[in-house]
User: What shape does this take?
Amino acid sequence: MSMDWISSRGQPSKHQLIGTAPLTDQDSKEVMLRAERHDEIRFTDIVQQFSSAARIPDRATVLRRINTYYGPSLILHDEDRGQELNYQLTAPGPDTYLYLWGAETDDGGFRTTWFKLAEMKAEFAQAQPQYDICGYCGEPIRTLEHERAVAFGQCSM
Assistant: This one.
């Protein structure tokens, strides 16, 4: 049984949801659920390219994980010929793969907005990453705040 998703304009979506099973592959799901700072992500497939305004990287490093009401968002970093580039990776819904967003910057190099680059599939570049364990609370050190607290001996997690 297949169910067509209707877009905001009343047009059928290009993807179909089969029953209640989401379309996204297991590797892409794991990236969005488990990726933390310093993890390296490899992009395995471009499902659909929306813009040719920026280069789509083969791999990128997670700078920051943001847990929003709509789900996790990963800020990624890549270097291309000495140029530092940032991207955002989101999981928009059950009928799509992951969206890679490029950063539009001003003359000073500061990001002004994000624009949609492509719909992608992703996976961890190496085996599932392991995290340092905090000597104070016994939890994995996943955030910058936790890392700083441990460095100053003031872990309160």
